[in-house]
Every structure is written in C-alpha cells, then in structure tokens.
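assembly run, all chains below
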Amino acid sequence: MAALITHSPILIIAIPLLAAFLTLPIGMASKKARNALLIVSLAFVTFLVIILARDISINGIHIYTLGATSPELTLPGGAMVPIRIILEVDAMSIFMGIIWATVSLAAAIFSLSHMASETGQNRFYTLLLLMVTGGFGMMFTGDLFNLFVFLEIASISGAALIAFRTRFADAVEGGFKYIVISAVAGLIFLFGVGLLYAQYNSLNIGFLANAMQYSTLDIIALTLFLVALTIKTGMVPLHMWYPDSYTVAPANITAMLVITSHACMYAVFRICFSLYGITLDATTVGWIIVIIGLLTMFVGVTMAVFQTDVMRFMSYHAISQMGYMWMGVGVGLAVLGNPEALATYGRDAISGGIFHILNHAMYKPLLFMTAGALFHRTGTRDLNKMGGLGHNMKFTLILYIIGTLSIAGIPPLNGFASKFLIYESVYQFNPVLAVVAMLVSIITLASFTKAFQSAFTGPQLPEYKDVKEVPKPMLIGMGILAAGIIFTSIFPGLIVERIVNPATDALINQAAYVNGIMGGGMP
Amino acid sequence: MMEYIPLNFPFLAAALLVGISFYILIFKRNLIKLIMGIAILASGVNLFLVALGYRAGGNAPIYTDVPEGPMVLPVPQALTLTSIVINVAVLALMLTMVILIYRHTGSLDSEKSRKMKG
Amino acid sequence: MIESPSGFWGPVVWIIAAIVALLIAYFIQRRGEKAYKKGVQSETFLMGNPKLSEGETHVKAHNIYWGFFEGLKKYYVPTITAHTGIINDHLIWLIAGIAIVMIILFVAGGI
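ok done. output:
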C-alpha cells in the first residue's frame, strides 16, 4: 500500500495510457472484455486518486521524480537545478484530480450505452482513455513543457472525439475548430515556455518560481500563457469557438471537455499563483481576470437565453459559469499583495471560486448528459422540436431538475453554496461584482426554465409517444454525478474544510510549492 | 552591434515565420492555407527553441567523450523533437477533418463551409 | 455549515425551515375551497374557442422570452453578429487578445 501511494502520481497517468492501447486488441476479441477494461481501469484510477488525496491531506505535497533512485530526490547529488521530469501533486492538483477521475468514470459508464450504436467503438475508447491521461498529466505535472505535452494530448484526442460522429457535417466542423484553436494556443504557450527557458535554463515550475524576476520577457511570457490557456476555457471574447465545438460532440465527451477546460483554468491559476506568485503585478492581473470574468458571465448567459439548440444552450452556460470562478479567484489574486484584505475576504473569494469549480464539474456534465439522453431518444438537439418528454423520461427529468436547480443557485443545492461564498466575499472588494453575479444567476434560472418548459413539460407530442427512458448505464453515469451534487449540497462545510480550503491554501502558499522542488536535495 | 546580428539571425527568422503565420491565420480563408499557416507557426516556434540552446562553436550533445569547448544545450533539442512529433499528429488530424468538411459541404472556404454561428 | 466573511450557510437548517414552511402551506391549502369540481375547472379554456390539439398547445422554445429579446435588440443584434463562426475571426480575437493584455501589463508595469 505504501509503495502504491508513493508511485500513485505516475500510475494515475500511466494506467489510462496503457489501457488506451490495450483497448484495441482486447476490443477486437471481445466487446464485454473491452468495456470491463475501460471501467475497471478508470475505477482503479479513481481509487488511486482517493488514496493519494488522503495521503496529501496528511503529509502535504507529494513529489514524484521520474527515474530517480528515490521519488523525492529532486536535486540529485547536490545539483542546483532539477534535471528530471518531476510530478508535483499538491492539494490543488489533487482537487482537480478527484473531479477528473469522477467525471471521466461517469462519462465512460454513460458512453457504454450512448455510443452503443456507433461504429469504431474500440477507437472511441482508446481516444477517451488518452484524453483521461492528458487531463491527469496537466493537473499533476510540475513542469511547463510537460504541461504543453499533456495539453496537446488532451486536445488531439478531444478534437478527434468531438468529430467522432463524422456522418454529421457540424461534428466535423466543431472538431476542426477545436483542433485549430488548440494547436495555435498550444504553440503560443510553447513560445512562452521558450521565453522562460531562455532566461532561466529550466522548465520546472518550482525552480522558475524561485528564480523569477518579472522582467520584460517574463511579462511577455505571462501574456502568452494567459491568453493561450484562457482561450481554451472559453473566456469572452475568446469564446466563440467554444459552443461550436461543445455542441456537436457526443454528450459524454462534452462532459469531459468541460473538465479539460477546467484543467486549463487550473494551469492559469498555477501559473499566476505558483509560477509568478509574489513577483506578479497581482493587482493588474487580478483586475484583468475579474473584468473579463464579469464579461464572460454576462455575455455567456445572455447568449444562452437566445439559443434553441439544447447542447449549444448548455455550452453557453458553461462559459457563463466559468465567469464565476474567474471572478472569485481574480478577486483573490488582486488582493494577493495585501495580507489584511487577503485574510478578510480574499481567501474566501478564492475558496468560493474553487468550490464553484467542483460544483460546476458535477452539475454541468450532468446537464450535458441529460441533453445527450434527450438526443439519444429523440434524435434531435433542437428544443423547438421537443416537447412533453417528461411523461416518458421521468428519471432524466428528475436528474435535469437537480442539475437546473444547482446551476441556478437555488438553495439548498450546492450551486448556491459556492455562489454564496463568492457573492459575500467579492462585494467587499467591489459591490458591482456581486450585483452582476446575482443578475446572471437569475437569467440562468430563467433560461433553464425555458429549456425545461420546451423539452419536458406540455402534452405528449404525437411523434414522441413511444419514447422510452434511456438505458441503465446512462442513468448510472448521470446518477453518479447527481449523487455527488446531493452529497455536496448537504455537507458543504465538510467539502469546503477538507478539500477546498487546502486547495486554496496550496495556491496562496507559493513558498511551499517551491520548497517541494528546491528543498528536495536529499543526499 | 554588427557582431550580434549573425547570432540573432535565427531569432529574427523565427519572428518572421511567426509573423507570416499570423498574417495567414487572419487573412486566408482557405482551410488548407490555414493549416499551412499553423505549420509555419510550428516551424517558427521550433526554430526559436532550437536557437535558444545554441552556443557559438558548441559541440553537438551526443558524445560521451566530450571534446574541449562548450556544448550545445540538449534540452531544447529534445523539446523541439517532441514538439515536431506533436505537430505532425495535429496537422494530420486537421487535414483529415478538412477532407471530411469538403465531403460534407463541398467547400474549403472557412466562411462558406461553416454551419454554426450565433 | 460554511462561513463567509459576512454570514454563514447551513443547508440542514434551511431544509428543516423549508419543510416547516411547506407543512404550513399544506395546512392552509387543506382549509381551502370545498366546492372545487374536478374535471371541469381544470380544463383548458381558450375564450370559448374550440380546444386545440395536443401538439398545438405546447409553446415552442423560440417563442419563449420573445419580448425580452425584442426589448434588448440593441444588445442582441451586434452580439449575435459578432459570433460569426468563422475560424479566422476566432484567431483574430486570439491575436488581438495577446496584444491588448500585453499592452495593459506593460502600461501597468511602467516599462
């Protein structure tokens, strides 16, 4: 068990990678064995994430140096520079890891039925597992170049999965837009990595943070990182490709794409807090993030009300909800240099933003999956053509209601808990922020009511008389997420105390992150 | 001043490549040309990375018995190799999708072949 | 129970309060009108016009909030036009974004 915990960071990345390439030969032999492999490998990864999370909550940052005699040996033989590939998992990384493990497991179970009628399923699951690898890699790496590599792994497999149903013209278009944006953003990111390497001759985040001077080149690199990563999270005004891609993907893939965009958001936080940290012009960057967060919220939600395609409508909501997290964390970043304000409301604002990531990562995949369930049974995404589906799809209806109430921030669901933390802390920074956030929440509820009314309520339409409830695996996939929502709703205090606040402190405490690498020079 | 120009020449070339690719990405509506633009951007970034590791008169970092003198940094070369491999995959995937887009819509123009907006 | 800088949120307390409020509402509702006739008063009444078929009574998605969009036309028309869906336009925003953020950071940094 101790060895399993020690090696768990690399196992979490390696097991899906190995399973990805086993999927094809095993899938050719037996479909059942392939499905079992998929579920068992993801369930095992989830287990590893949980024991690693427990270990981190007890022993602090977990370092894993690839190829070293001992995994903690970051600076072998008294070297000044970490030369090996290092995975650094702290409370924030494992927080994202828990989300990614849960959602990918739920999405995989969901896809067993949702994709059952498609051809080329072996390749579908290969790509899905590769995407899981990419996501975990982004969350766990302590190295800027590996961040780029895993970002590209997640992007390439994600784009291929978006365009997987090649018989639809719009699916291919969405996949193409995703890969073009990802490729350009990835190359710009790599350019920024090169700029930092040129100055400090290292790629390790901890080492760079120690040496960081915030020179002109560093500012250019920061800009490149910020813009390249935020375009992948769909920040307004860089969001326009986002609904196009997310709409056309299979619903389970959209659910996972939401989390990869959270992983990019995590990378932004990591770069702002851990890489630049104290040297950063925190007020300016914080204000940029806050203002763009406000814009993201507002434009996202107003565009969402207008949509009639159910997946597109939810994609715009995904953009809009990202704004809350940007705003919460942005306020925290803006007061990073002011210990008093940070203690009074800054830390709570960051906690609210991070807690909202967790909640959003549960209700948004759930909503995307209910949209996928509607598509599965009706064959259309157009809300204008739907109606009265609640008569036949009762479980989907209940799951949709849970998701809706949560995203709209209706008490006592978890969406309210995190929005509450955000409202009550950002208004001390600037009251306007809280007002806009509440307005957006109201429009969110209004637009979800619209989708609810047009899809589920009303008399049974003649063309949907024979619609049946979706198959069990889809319900189980959605049920996992709904159970998560209800648990978080009833015990928000437990979640905030055990996993959100440690993640916030891990972000704020740059010295601990640096010390993880630079203090690891055991003889 | 003049002696710096040959050393900085690769960086100027990289900047030029990135500039050309930005021009293509903004103004060329043909999807194949767009992909070429991304390939040029990739070359520019790769050239930048390789040039970073170059030390004037250095040896290639492939010996175990190193001759006297400075050695070229090996890390950027490893980065560039990885980046090239990734870009091959990305470009292949993009070209596949362009074929499919052409089959579905009969157009390679980014405006005419688009189905989604708003 | 989570604590924010200016208050707290406890869902269990809230749920108990909500249940109590629902019970009160239920008792008030039970004391209500006894003369309610089932079947007659719950039927659709369209100003004496003949009843529509089932599909026709359902309000379709794009008709909902029509007035909202009409009232905010000044905001919606330019915003929707900006979402062209052309990949080049998305890339223009990306490059412009880099330029703008860089200018802001340099101006604020005083370099």
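Residues 2-41+59-109 of chain C form one domain.

Chain C has four helices and two strands.

not gonna interpret more than that til we talk
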